[in-house]
Input
Amino acid sequence: MELLWIYLLVINLVGFFVMWTDKRRAVRHEWRISEKTIWIVSIIFGAFGTTIGMFICRHKTKHMQFKMGLPLLAVVDLILLVEWMSRTQ
Output
């Protein structure tokens, strides 16, 4: 169980860092992180981190797929986590 919490913390920090890095690169007109990478990190339970990063960094907020999709995915992650925890106790 402890490994799960460590994983969730790390993947969400990665998600936040991905959004922060992509925003910084966009401002500097540098090579960008692909949207595919952002979605992969989000799908593997990093949606909270990418969602928080999106709003704090004001990045990808004009893209409806991110503006609606990332928070929705974060809710799905939460539901799956609660369901898994209820079955393991």
User: Anything to note?
Assistant: The CA atoms of residues 17 and 25 lie 12 Å apart. The radius of gyration is 14 Å. The first helix runs from residue 2 to 27.
